[in-house]
Known about the structure:
The complex is a heterodimer.
Chain A: H1 2-28, H2 60-64, H3 70-110, H4 123-154, H5 164-185, H6 198-220, H7 229-249, H8 256-291, H9 298-312, H10 327-339, H11 341-356, H12 359-364, H13 366-388, H14 391-397, H15 401-431, H16 439-471, H17 477-482, H18 485-514
Helix pairs in contact in A: 1-9, 1-10, 3-4, 3-5, 3-15, 3-18, 4-5, 4-6, 4-8, 4-15, 5-6, 6-7, 7-8, 8-11, 8-13, 8-15, 9-11, 10-13, 11-13, 13-15, 15-16, 15-18, 16-18
Chain B: H1 4-31, H2 44-55, H3 108-111, H4 115-123, E1 141-144, E2 166-169, H5 171-182
Antiparallel strand pairs in B: 1-2
Helix pairs in contact in B: 2-5, 4-5
Amino acid sequence: MSVTIGLLLSLSFVVSIAALAFLIWAIANHQLSATQDNAYTIFTPGEAGAPDDAAFEGEPDTAHGEHHFDVERAGIDKISRLPVLVLLTGAVFWLILGSVFGLTASLKLHWPDWLSGEAALTFGRVRTLHLNLVIYGWLSLAGIGVVMWIVPRIFHTALKYPKLPIIGAGLWNLGVLAGALAIASGWTDGEEWLEIPWQIDIVLAVAGSFFVVPIVATAVARNVHHIYVSGWYFLAALCWFPVLFVIANFPFIHSGVEEATVNWWFAHNVLGLWLTPLGVGAAYYFIPKIIGKPIYSYSLSLLGFWGLALFYSQVGIHHLIGGPVPTWVATLSIVHSVMMFVPVIAVAVNQHVTVARNWWAVRQSVPLRFISLGAVLYTAASFQGSIEALRTVNTVTHFTQYTVGHAHLGAYGFVSFIMFGAIYHMMPRLTGRQWPWPGLLNVHFWFVVVGFAIYFVALTVGGVFQGLAMLDITRPFAYSVTLLMPYLEARSIGGSLMTVGHLVFAFNIVAMLVMKPADAQRPPAPASTAPATES
Amino acid sequence: MNRLLPLSIVALGILAFATLMLVVVPGMQIRSQSPSPGLLPYTQAELRGREQYVSLGCLYCHSQQPRASDQAPDDQRGWGRASVASDYVYDQPHQLGTMRTGPDLLNVGARLPSQAWHLTHLLQPRAIFDWSIMPAYPFLFEQKPAAEPGDVVVALPPGYAAQNGVFVASQQALDLVTYLQGLDRTYPALPDAVRDDGYAEPDDEGRKP
């Protein structure tokens, strides 16, 4: 057995390393075209050097003036406008509902007799509702909305079949609602991240194809030669997630530990091959776009992308370290978790250096502040995840609130912050209106930053103490529960601040949407419907 | 990076490779094992109880996978020996869990065999442990003026007892307790059984078990 294990481990590792070496060779010899010139794909000629931010504060010239180069793109944005708005509105609705369930679940951990009278409101269901609503409702819809807006822009091609995503959004919202009702009523498939019953998953899968088809068709019909780095992430994510979702939800195939490996192969890939590419791809577009300068090193972004694909896809079983799985597969996932340092550092160098060299933009632009903080937290969450997978660390943090803190650093600090910034950047361009109260963007920012800092520190510190207590046989199990109480209470305080921030966010968006056009200070978008083309 | 098709094919190829390594090969290895001798299929009542366990989300606070003594004192806490893959062949959906807000439950039936204890604990955990943060499950019980023939009355300490009448367990509560009582994998595991031995101390010749 040990020979087989050794062979399998080495095979996987050698294949990944060989692929990485090939990639570096290919970049060095220009076999893969990704020159710094390609980084300018996001700009129209003459546009580079001009910051692009409708929400800049305190600068009347940029705040209220038309951004010159948007005119050339208006024909493209106009086609994507309605689908993107529909997707984002749904996303924000699920964020609010998901936050309410998240906060409820948090409070129930220290007020265990609160709302205990109804099965639908028991902790096990409220927590599950929170996860499913924020992952499939908020993050997936927001991510697809962002993709739907960026893809036509980087391909200089109007969105194909723009009615399909609207139908898809309707179906997807129905699917998420049905899934939530199912979970609340106790009908669940019973595995983490896969709770929505497979019958309802069919609706989500069909809805998903209504998103994939227009985006792929737009990519095929593109008017640019080069696919910009955001496009790699988005197109790969749109290949990966449907495959993951259908395979993992296919019923009656697996049971027992085999099912557990499928479960965590899926669950970690939802983060690694779905939410992460959406977030990183969005950051790769918005950071240089808002600043008006291309990213620091375009070739490096190739390493970040392929490294993510090679290593992130095999980390899932680190959720089962010390469990009833083969030793080699746990070790394999640990090794790949550590290898994630490679692509993460590549992305970090690219994005953080670009931001750091243009710090003035972070001070002026709230959207960029959200996005660049999200990018920093991607680096932080990934480093933390690599270290957390090490056996010596994992033995303390596994089965504790530390893991919950880490999950939120990734899904919230990283992906959600980038989505907040992306939506704040996109909305004025989607509606042709200004933010009614630009100061409230900043209020949102500080509520969620302070709230999340409290949340994360509480669960991280509390989780370590909880883990150490469970490893200490001189302490009764009860000790690990009682010691956690102040940390759980702090988490509820942090979570409340985050929820208030989300309400401000939703208020900003609703205010912009319902505001009478006469109140809008921004001139309406140009009437031209001809898509801008450029080769 | 100018072409769509190669990008998609390589991306999907990498995912297929990951699936082979994380799902297919471990799956073949796990399937090659026969069920642990001593492991019995669930009874109908246990399966109904297991449905309650799944539907109420017990998984989110309770794991079902004791760790090895080389790694953690799970066995010393009375949670049982390190579990192996062939202990779970009848579990669908699996309930291995990733959180221990409460203790591991894979062998709860062996350490807490009393139906009365479980019913009291489900109706009001704090009637037994003042430190517990487990939710109470009053909706699995019915308050009646007096017990009828066939009713299972829940014992409660003073201060928690019903103001008028008694609490009676519903069929769901009884099934759930039957499942919990049946959770007992204290039989010995086979020596070549599959589990993560990554924390095991090497023997004198430097080999791990």
